[in-house]
Amino acid sequence: MAEAVIEVEVVYAAVDRQVLLSVQVTPGSSVRAVLLQSGIGKAFPELDLAVCPVGVFGKVIADPDSRAVQAGDRIEVYRPLLADPKEVRRLRAAKAAEARNQ
């Protein structure tokens, strides 16, 4: 008898391209195991799948090794931010305040 499988998606968007992979896995597989099985690390060798932040449908997963996937899940691999949004807003506000004072 064939083993049951579920289908999930793995997505990653680099600066220059994005990839969406459909992966068939056994029920109960962890998020991290699905990432490794998907082959996304081969398409993007710069990714360190052991430590990169990941989420499911936009919600960050704190422990991808223990979170089991469900049918239809969309696993997202996140890039590190290039700039801290708070710092960017602070600099923009300071620049605007300086322009008003001149």
| Beta content | 15-25%
> Remind me, CATH topology?
Ubiquitin-like (UB roll)
Name the overall outline.
elongated
What is the CATH architecture annotation?
A: Roll
Report the uncertain regions: none
Largest pleated sheet:
5 strands, mixed
* Name of the top-level CATH class: Alpha Beta
How are the strands ordered across the major sheet? 2-1-5-3-4
**Average pLDDT reading:** 89
**CATH homologous superfamily classification:** Beta-grasp domain
List how many beta strands DSSP finds.
5
The percent of residues in helical segments reads 25-40%
- Summed up, the domain count is 1
Order of helices and strands: EEHHEEEH
Distance between the termini: 78 Å
Family: Belongs to the UPF0125 (RnfH) family.
Pfam family, one: Ub-RnfH
Protein name: UPF0125 protein LAB08_R06840
Organism: Pseudomonas izuensis
